[in-house]
Amino acid sequence: MRAGILIIATAAGMAALADTAAAEDKEPTAIVAIGGATEWALPGPTSFGPSVSVEFTPIRNWLEIEIGAATMLRRGVTEFETDLLFKMPFTLSDTMEFMVGAGPSWSYTRQEGTKWGATFAFELMVWPGPERKLGWFIEPTYTINQDSEKSLGVSVGLLIAIP
Which of 30, 53, 66, 122 would staple 85 via disulfide (CB 3.0–4.6 Å)? Predict the structure, then answer.
């Protein structure tokens, strides 16, 4: 979990340097997402837990980078997950945005050790007002790891824009 916090802190620092034109377009420097996640192993157990991520835009209308971490809990096992997703944004309206992305992921449990893999994600962001200060998101994911273990997941939560 400490590694996840370090990664998110690094992302926040990178976001501060990302896009100087953001202030002109009312585009936030970064977006923090806080919520809950669930994951279904295919086949296997279901896990639940909190998730947090930081997203920033290095290339407006082309690339958004999300660095996230989650602690997934299931009977007798705690799994720490992090991912780095590269997303293509599609603006649906002033208050809705859809993204498609992929990137590497890492997970750790005491029982299984460290595993790496790839995550594929879709994200819908909804901002109730055009000022885009607070909103909500839903992000379904598909992950496959080095041992060919597959899982489906979904995260839902609150979006907080960092000016």
Answer: 66
